[in-house]
Specification:
5 helices; mainly alpha; 97 residues
Length: 97
Amino acid sequence: MAGDHRALAAVADLSDERVQRHHASLRVRALLPSLHLNLADAYRRAGDVARAREHLALAAPLAAELPDDGYGTMIRDAVTRVAARLDAGSREPLAAS
């Protein structure tokens, strides 16, 4: 979870211009849904429902802004799966579907 927090903090110092040096299509805002989703899932698995819901609430609207491509679909599906697991009280990893 510490790595997820560091990644989210690092994005605060990133600009679109800087990430586009690596690939022209990258946008900082497109990284945020995944980062919040990772934290939501980590908190869910740790049993911290309140923090999981906070990060899920941040991830969901950001994920809705992603393009309708493979990445956007994957993130939106994962938001749905984490929300369902959270509602069910599950602390099992997502891969254990």
